[in-house]
Every structure is written in C-alpha cells, then in structure tokens.
Design goal:
- By secondary structure, this protein is of the alpha+beta class.
- It has a single domain, classed as Outer membrane efflux proteins (OEP) (Up-down Bundle), CATH 1.20.1600.10.
- About 65% of the residues lie in helices and about 10% in strands.
- The chain is elongated.
- It starts with a helix and ends in a 10-residue tail after the last helix.
Length: about 450
C-alpha cells in the first residue's frame, strides 16, 4: 500500500466526517421569528385584512336602509324687468325681485317586504365569509413561510454536503493521478475518480441553483433575505390520531367554514329576492319657507308650508325580472349547498392526507437517520479494506457516493417532517399566529367591525 493511497484515504475519512458535522450557529434566526415577520409584514395578508375591513362596510350599508334620510335644499333667484310704454307719457316701469326658498325633507322606510332585514343578514354572512377567508390567507402565508424556511435549511445542507464531497473527490483524483504516475493504478482508476468528481460538481451547481430559488421564495414571503437560519426547529404539537385531526378539521377549517356561511348568505339572498314582490311602506315629511322678495302685490311676503305623507308602493308587474331573480337565487342556494358538501369532503380528505404525510415523513426521517449511521459504518469499512488492498478505487468512490446520498436524504426528510407537521395544523384550521404563540400583535377583525359597522356617519377613526 503506497503512502499516497493511505494519505488520501485519511483525507477522505476527515472530509466525510466534516460532511456529517452539524455547525452550531450563533444567534441563529429561528422559524418563530420568520413567522412573526411574515405575519406582520406580508403584503398578501395585509391586503386581505384591508379586504375584510371593506366587507365590514356591507353591514353599515345594510343598516343605513333602516335609518331616515334627511336633505336640505335652498334656492335663490333674481329677476330684473323693465316696461316701456309707447305713448311716450307714461314713465318706464322697473322692477327687481329676489325670491328665495328653502326646504327640509325627511323620509323613513317602515316596511320593505323584508328586504332590509334580509340585506342586513346577508351582509353579516359576507363578513363571516371574509373572516374565514382572512384566516385561510393567514394559514397559507404561515405555511408558506415554514416551507420556504425549511427549503432554505435543506438546500443549505445539500450545498454544504456537495461542497465537502467535491473537496473529497478532488483529493481522491489527485491521489489517483500520483499513483498512476508510479504505476500503482491504471488509467481506468484515474478516469473513474475524474468522472465521479465531475458528476458531484454538476450536483453542486444544481444544489446552489436550488438554494438561490429557495432564498428568493423566502424573501418574497418573509420580506427579508434568509440569514443564519436555525437548522432544526422544534416540531409543533399535533393530535395523536387521524380521527382527531379529521374532527378538528371539520369544525375549524376556514375553507369549510366559508362554504357553510355561503349557504347562509344564499338563503338570505332568496329572501331578498322574494321581498321584491311585497309592498314598501314609507313616511315622508317636509318643511319649506319661501320669500317672494319685492314681488307685487305684497313685497317681502313669506310662505311657510309643512307636509307629512305616507306612501305605499305595491309592485304589480315588473316584466318578470323579479321572478327571474327569485329562481336564480334559489339555484345559487342549491349550488352553495352542493359546494358545502364538496368542501366538507375535501376538508376531510386534506386532513387525512396531511396526517398520512406527517406519519410518512416522520418514519422516513427515522429510517434515513438509521440508514446514515449504517452508511457511515460501511464507508469506514470500505476505507479500511482499501488500505489493505481488498477494495478498489471504484469501491471507495461508490461508498462515498452512497454516504452523500444518505446525508442528503436525511436533510430532505427532516425538512419534510417539519413542513408536514405544520400542514396538519393548517388542515385543522390551527396554523394561526395565536395558536403558535407568536410574539406579535394579533390582528382582531372585530375591532374595525365594532367601530364602523354601526356608525351613522364619519370616516374610519372618527
């Protein structure tokens, strides 16, 4: 056994061990911090909050139909006239008047065929759908953050492992070239070392490209570039059984809640359409004052008038549009009911799939960890056997490649387990800032609703 061979075998062991080492970052950025940053700054989530605040105004608009309307109108005019007689004796007559009038009118709807109540209840359903949509968006953003975070962690590890492997194979190629010069190995051994190095270098290029894509995804969701991320964040607590996951999903999944509220909304839409067949009753009152100005025969005369009237409007025939609206609303309701059932089935399917994905990823991570331990032992054995001449250069290269594959597989399964655990929470409607105990100001949609939904006038915050 030549000294060069023993040298590069020792180098191989050292570099392989370096590939297995896990660095301990100082002040590593945690997954919790990334989630907090995304919750506070992600534009998709902020936009959905604004959309919900806009939806809250549907309630204010519906309530306004119960309230009176009051208007004031005023008018002033000026009239200048001149009369000239043909007899040449009668003097020219001139007049100038400035009459004015002012009116205050008020109207109050007393009954509108149930349409006002239906519109109010429909608006409430719209708000609840908006809240469910906001929670679904929050979950999507947080799950996307977890996925982007772990993608960066995984790809960083894959790049590091490939860089270590390239260093190892570079030493092996150099050693093979030196041994070839002294006749200890053939040209085939050198070619095998060069081919394996080129293959690993190509893998390193691909790994770096994947890492860059993951970094850009992280920056898009979180808003900052990833830096010094914690390698293995703690797993969140998940239910112990699939049945529990399905039960919680059916009661809390925001997409299913939205489908339920959509049925309620369309029920009120039917009532709103039926109301168009019923009479409308309102009361109207007005007070006006007018002044004739300098008009003849009584300059400066003032007139005050007051009126109160009840108005009943009964639709008789409107071209059939009201019945078309009723039929359309009823079919929309039927559609919403079917969508609700479809959403329920999808929710349960997603919950079961998330649970199975979590179980599989956990088992895969455990299996890959055991495989890596076995592969480490096998690699060291091949190294030792190569030192005594019972293993070839190709055997060593194959063992090193299998070790690298095991290391990469473990890094990927660790990523999959963390993402799958959070996917289980998402399927149950539990992947929220509040449930994750994030150190952020939790957005409360009720604050804007309570402030503005019943407001009689004024802008937000007035």
């Amino acid at each position: 056994m030549g000294r060069d061979l023993r040298f590069w075998l020792k180098v191989s062991v050292a570099l392989a061990a370096a590939g297995l080492a896990v660095p301990s970052p100082v002040s590593a950025a945690t997954l919790k911090e990334a989630l907090e940053k995304a919750y506070s700054t992600n534009p998709q989530l902020l936009a959905q909050r604004a959309a919900l605040r806009a939806t809250d105004e549907e309630v204010a608009q519906a309530l306004s139909q119960w309230r009176p309307t009051v208007s004031v109108s005023a008018q002033q005019s000026e009239s200048d006239s001149r009369t000239k007689f043909r007899d040449g004796v009668t003097p020219t007559s001139k007049s100038n008047t400035q009459p004015w009038s002012a009116t205050v009118s008020a109207s109050q709807t007393l009954f509108a065929g149930g349409r006002i109540l239906a519109q109010r209840l429909l608006a409430g359903a719209q708000v609840r759908i908006g809240r469910a949509t906001l929670r679904a968006t929050e979950q999507n953003v947080l799950l996307g953050t977890v996925s982007a975070y772990m993608n960066v962690v995984r790809d960083l590890e894959v790049v590091r492992l490939n860089e270590t492997s390239v260093k190892l194979l570079t030493k092996q190629r150099e050693a093979a070239q030196e041994r070839f010069k002294v006749g200890e190995v053939t040209r085939t051994d050198v070619a095998q070392a060069e081919a394996r190095l080129a293959q690993t270098e190509a893998g390193l290029i691909a790994a770096r490209a994947s890492l860059r894509a993951s970094e850009l995804e992280y920056e898009r969701i979180v808003g900052v570039a990833p830096e010094n991320l914690e390698k293995l964040p703690a797993l969140p607590a998940v239910p112990a059984t699939e049945d529990e996951v399905r039960r919680l999903a059916e009661g809390n999944n925001p997409n299913y809640i939205s489908a339920i509220e959509s049925v309620t909304l369309n029920e009120h839409a039917v009532n709103l359409a039926v109301g168009s067949l019923l009479p409308t009753v309102s009361v109207q009152a007005s007070y006006s004052r007018s002044n004739a100005g300098d008009a003849f025969p009584e300059p400066g005369a003032r007139t005050d008038s007051t009126s109160v009237s009840g108005v009943v409007t009964m639709p008789i025939y409107q071209g059939g549009v009201e019945w078309a609206n009723i039929r359309q609303s009823e079919e929309n309701l039927n559609q919403a009911k079917m969508n609700k059932e479809q959403s329920r089935r999808t929710t349960l399917e997603d919950a079961s799939n998330a649970w199975e994905s979590y179980r599989a990823s956990r088992a895969s991570r455990e299996s890959n960890a055991q495989q890596l331990k076995a592969q480490e032992t096998a690699f060291q054995g091949v190294q030792q056997e190569a030192e005594v001449g019972t293993r070839t250069t190709l055997d060593v290269l194959d063992a090193q490649r299998e070790l690298l594959n095991s290391q990469v597989a473990l890094a990927r399964s660790q990523r999959d387990e963390v993402v799958a655990a959070h996917l289980v929470l998402s399927s149950m409607g539990a992947l929220t800032a509040e449930n994750l105990n994030l150190s952020v100001a939790i957005y409360d949609p009720l604050e804007n609703y309570d402030e503005n939904a019943g407001k009689w006038w004024g802008p937000s915050g007035f």
